[in-house]
TrEMBL record, chain A:
<keyword id="KW-0472">Membrane</keyword>
<keyword id="KW-0812">Transmembrane</keyword>
<feature type="transmembrane region" description="Helical">
    <location>
        <begin position="605"/>
        <end position="627"/>
    </location>
</feature>
<feature type="transmembrane region" description="Helical">
    <location>
        <begin position="639"/>
        <end position="660"/>
    </location>
</feature>
<dbReference type="InterPro" id="IPR003838">
    <property type="entry name" value="ABC3_permease_C"/>
</dbReference>
<dbReference type="InterPro" id="IPR052536">
    <property type="entry name" value="ABC-4_Integral_Memb_Prot"/>
</dbReference>
<protein>
    <submittedName>
        <fullName>ABC transporter permease</fullName>
    </submittedName>
</protein>
<feature type="transmembrane region" description="Helical">
    <location>
        <begin position="230"/>
        <end position="254"/>
    </location>
</feature>
<feature type="transmembrane region" description="Helical">
    <location>
        <begin position="550"/>
        <end position="571"/>
    </location>
</feature>
From TrEMBL, chain B:
<dbReference type="GO" id="GO:0005524">
    <property type="term" value="F:ATP binding"/>
</dbReference>
<dbReference type="InterPro" id="IPR017871">
    <property type="entry name" value="ABC_transporter-like_CS"/>
</dbReference>
<dbReference type="InterPro" id="IPR027417">
    <property type="entry name" value="P-loop_NTPase"/>
</dbReference>
<keyword id="KW-0067">ATP-binding</keyword>
<keyword id="KW-0813">Transport</keyword>
<comment type="similarity">
    <text>Belongs to the ABC transporter superfamily.</text>
</comment>
<dbReference type="InterPro" id="IPR017911">
    <property type="entry name" value="MacB-like_ATP-bd"/>
</dbReference>
<dbReference type="InterPro" id="IPR003439">
    <property type="entry name" value="ABC_transporter-like_ATP-bd"/>
</dbReference>
<feature type="domain" description="ABC transporter">
    <location>
        <begin position="4"/>
        <end position="244"/>
    </location>
</feature>
């Protein structure tokens, strides 16, 4: 047979199966579009020019991989739906004498059509949307909005080569499926005679237990950062439990309903209960998929909303009191005390100020040591376990400084004796009279109004318990540092000198950045071990870039998952409608009228639709606390707004869901009718 | 006592496109007495299913009336028609039309459940009918687990469960092998002997020979009528065959 024959045949077959192909083509177009956009953004030269733009591009290119992964899974999943419905048709061709080689060839032509169409449309839509995204990001990051046409040939090449591979893989998978199946199997697939499922009590109970266990971990986990493996375990348990509950639990519940004769033999229960029971085996996995995807959509959306809320508030981003901060490590050799370094820094700052025509209004330095420990009966234990992800106990973070630094920083006048410390806990005050830390024994004075001097206090204090400790002198600090090094080795923290420099009011962003860069180069020349030199503007821009990058990727993934959910529902409803068509026509002949049929259909569709939503809601409630703890990292002091983000995300999801319900219910009714 | 009166029923199908019309029934009149067993015979396309659908209130005639117990079912409003069907008519179809989501017992219960009957009452009604049709042992099975003959007997049970005035059967033996057909017709005889009125559409001579009265339909008209009287099934079979031969000959003559 000549190729032109296949062209025609493939085109006909796509047209004939349009109802099935349409969602698949939509999936292809949207994944191609999203991949192109992220790729184009991550190589956009214009973005490098705005402060923080480089960071944004790095994040985008990382997100690119996540997106590719999801797109691949998604397209393969959609394809499996498609193939399930088409195998029958191939079986007929096969029996009518079209051999498998021809079927495969036709399939190849079809795939080619779909690939070419979706690539063209995907890239055009991607180019348009890319422009919109660039404008949005520039606006979010406070850069000038430049109009103009952006087209990234690099992104086109990458996206196309990636999707050509995906389409080839899908085609190969389909071909091997056809090759392995015999025609009778092909004919039968699609309408396998379903038997009424059996109740599996043990598995149902296991489902309940797994879900409960997952909930328990989610509700009790102290810190999702240090307890990341537990958070992960919790997610896996909840997902596994969800699938078990849908596959076996739903059947158990329906069987109970059915065995209750008074309930079951009522007009409004009889048809839906039997109908759902009959096809729960096929349905349950679909419902599980919808639920898991829905939870994913809501989480991603709520993160996106949170990021958006936070990004609107630029002032809150500046963790720094000064315009520029620097932090250097105090050198190992013990004869050099903190004072010398501080003096040298002061010198460099003055030099930088005169070189850059800035006036320094205030410089404050302090020496500090930050230890991660585990709380013990009589103090704190320095151990490698504190860094372990699997630690049962959440770590306590200690910020230690010497009294001279503290007095300079705060113009207080604390005076300590040897082996005496001041302690202040951010969550709970320290309650014991003595504090033991490795070989040190201190007697404790509680100081509730101690200045919380560390820069990242807000974030850390929300994740782990934080204590501020003032020791007598820098010698003590260094001894603690030394001893800690011997215990935790690679994890060891060092004593740092942190300096905040305030410039004269009216110094603009450019001056700040310039000052910071100049100071850094001077410090490098002096051979200082720089931990960080940063300006407020840069820090804010970096944070902003991080947020818009993450926001962008999260939003993309959320849309992708939402699309997946929608399409799964659509496929499910249409294939079920075809199953139900005959059932309802028989019922009508026996004596069920239109409005009764409508009612039965409605109650069945409603259950299929809103059962996943209800389960999704419960899941979200259960993991809410855990999510909130995670979001502290992003939202910092605005984490109180997180519930609102979740609510908005849920509402957005629900609106889309209800719209889908409306549409599919109409399609369903049309088919059944 | 007259149970059903069909008066000058005409049915014209108008195709959606082009508007060309098909006259499926032109002028059909007959009546059915209580306890009757009637077979309507005719070639395929002669209007049998159309007539049955009108009697079942599944379709409305273009003209004419159908009286069941002196009530014109053509005028029953759409909302009440399903309930009317459930309470007065029982159906047996060629392809059984059992629902594979229900067990055999639940399939039989469908008309009762739809009428909102109590479960206890359903059980009481089911017992004698299931015994009569010999399906007690398959009540908990599902349609895909039983044979065609068993399925059709289950369908008969479903048709009888609501004590209908009239059982309508469209080619009930059409999908059965000859042994199952004989068996089903035997059951129809018993049921009729107990007083159940049956109206059956068929083109099987054997099936028709069980009926007390056979109506022949051709080109949308009742063409001929045969009474069984005291004849045996075999004699009736012969008579129907002869009639059909004449009918076919007449057609040849016309051509
Ligand atoms: N829904 C319909 N629309 C148009 N014509 C129909 C329809 N149903 C039946 N007909 C026509 O009416 C005639 C009688 O059909 P039917 O009652 O099905 O015959 P039978 O059951 O005796 O084979 C046929 O010519 C058929 O084509
Ligand atoms: Mg017919």
């Amino acid at each position: 047979m000549r190729n032109s024959f296949y062209w025609k045949m493939a085109a006909d077959s796509i047209r004939k199966n349009w109802k099935m192909y349409f969602p698949f083509i939509i999936s292809c177009i949207s994944t191609i579009m999203m991949t192109y956009i992220i790729q184009a953004l991550s190589t956009n030269p214009g973005l490098s020019e705005i402060p923080g733009g480089e960071n944004l591009k790095t994040i985008l290119s990382m997100g690119y991989f996540v997106l590719i992964l999801f797109s691949t899974i998604f397209l393969f999943y959609m394809n499996s739906f498609l193939m399930k419905n088409r195998k029958r048709e191939f079986g007929v061709y096969n029996i009518l004498g079209m051999d498998k080689k021809h079927i495969m060839k036709m399939l190849a032509f079809e795939t080619f059509y779909i690939a070419v169409c979706s690539m063209i449309i995907g890239l055009i839509a991607g180019t348009i949307l890319n422009k919109v995204c660039v404008l949005l990001i520039r606006q979010m990051m406070g850069a000038d909005v430049a109009l103009g046409f952006e087209f990234s040939s690099e992104a086109v090449v990458w996206t196309l080569s990636f999707f050509i591979i995906i389409f080839l893989l899908i085609l190969l998978g389909n071909i091997s499926q056809i090759r392995l199946a015999n025609p009778i199997d092909l004919l039968k697939s699609g309408n396998v005679g379903e038997q009424e499922p059996k109740t599996k009590w043990v598995l149902s109970i296991v489902g309940v237990l797994l879900t409960g266990w997952g909930y328990y971990i989610a509700l009790t986990l102290q810190s999702p950062i240090s307890g990341m493996p537990y958070a992960f375990l919790s997610a896996v348990l909840i997902i596994a439990g969800t699938y078990l509950l849908f596959t076996t639990g739903s059947i158990a519940v329906l069987k109970i309903l059915k065995n209750n004769k008074k309930y079951y033999y009522q007009t409004s229960h009889f048809i839906p209960v039997s109908g759902m029971l009959y096809r729960m085996k096929k349905n349950a996995v679909g419902l599980g998929n919808i639920t898991v995807l829905s939870v994913g959509v809501i989480l991603l959306l709520s993160i996106a909303v949170s990021l958006y809320i936070v990004s609107g508030n630029k002032e809150a981003d500046s963790q720094y009191a000064g315009n520029v901060i620097s932090e250097v490590r105090l050198p190992e050799d013990a004869d050099e005390t903190g004072e010398e370094i501080k003096a040298k820094l002061r010198e460099l700052i003055d030099q930088t100020a005169s070189e850059t025509n800035n006036t320094v209004t205030d410089v404050s330095s302090y020496t500090y040591l930050n230890l991660v420990t585990l709380a013990a009966d009589d103090g704190f234990e320095v151990t490698k376990d504190a860094y372990s992800m699997l630690a049962k106990q959440s770590p306590a973070s200690l910020y230690l400084t010497d009294q001279e630094s503290y007095n300079q920083l705060t113009s207080d006048n604390v005076s300590l004796d040897e082996n005496e410390v001041y302690v202040h806990g951010t969550d709970d005050e320290y309650t014991k009279d003595t504090l033991s830390l490795m070989d040190f024994q201190f007697s404790v004075n509680v100081m509730e109004d101690m200045e919380e001097f560390s820069l990242d206090n807000e974030t850390t204090s929300l994740i782990s318990d934080t204590y501020y400790i003032i020791v007598e002198d820098i010698e003590t600090l260094r001894q603690i540092e030394q001893q800690q090094k011997e215990i935790v080795e690679d994890y060891a923290a060092s004593t740092n000198v942190s300096t905040q420099i305030s410039l004269e009011q009216g110094a603009d962003e450019q001056q700040e950045i310039e000052f910071g860069e100049q100071l850094r180069s001077h410090m490098e020349q002096e051979g200082m071990e720089i931990v960080v030199v940063d300006s407020r503007t840069e820090a804010a821009s970096d944070l902003q870039a991080l947020r818009s990058g993450v926001l962008f990727i999260v939003l993309n993934l959320a849309v992708l998952l939402l699309l997946m959910t929608v399409l799964i529902i659509y496929y499910k409803q249409t294939s079920e409608a075809y199953d139900d068509k005959e059932r309802f026509s028989i019922l009508q002949k026996i004596g069920l009228n239109q409005s009764e049929i409508k009612k039965a259909i409605k109650s069945q569709i409603l259950t299929v639709f809103f059962l996943p939503v209800i389960v999704t809601g419960i899941h979200i409630l259960a993991i809410f606390l855990l999510m909130r703890k995670l979001m502290i990292l992003v939202m910092i002091n605005q984490v109180n707004l997180f519930p609102i983000s979740v609510l908005i995300a849920f509402l957005v999801f629900l609106i889309v869901y209800v719209i889908i319900y409306r549409i599919t219910a109409r399609v369903y009714y049309k088919i059944v009718h | 006592m007259t149970l059903l009166q069909v008066q000058h029923v005409m049915k014209v199908y108008t195709t959606r496109f082009g508007g060309n019309q098909v006259e499926a029934l032109s002028d059909v009149s007959f009546s059915v007495d209580s306890g009757d067993y009637i077979a309507i015979m005719g070639e395929s396309g002669s209007g049998k299913t159309t007539l049955l659908n009108i009697l079942a209130a599944l379709d409305k005639p273009t003209r004419g009336s159908v009286l069941l117990n002196r009530k014109n079912i053509v005028q029953i409003p759409e909302k009440e028609i399903s309930a009317f069907r459930r309470n007065n008519l029982g159906f047996v179809f060629q392809d059984f039309n059992l629902l594979d989501t229900f067990s055999i017992q639940d399939n039989i219960f469908v008309p009762l459940v739809l009428s909102g009957k109590k479960h206890k009452e359903m059980e009481q009604k089911l017992k004698p009918i299931a015994e009569k049709l010999g399906i007690e042992h398959i009540l908990t099975k599902f349609p895909y687990e039983i044979s065609g003959g068993q399925k059709q007997r289950a369908a008969v049970a479903r048709a009888l469960i609501a004590d209908p005035e009239l059982v309508l059967a469209d080619e009930p033996t059409g999908a059965l092998d000859s042994k199952s057909s004989d068996d089903l017709l035997q059951h129809f005889d018993y049921i009729n002997a107990e007083g159940q009125t049956i109206l059956m559409v068929t083109h099987s001579i054997k099936a028709a020979s069980h009926a007390k009265r056979v109506l022949f339909i051709k080109d949308g008209n009742i063409f001929h009528e045969l009474y069984k009287g005291e004849m045996s099934n075999e004699e009736m079979f012969q008579k129907i065959s002869n009639t059909l031969a004449i009918l076919a000959a007449g057609e040849d003559g016309n051509a």
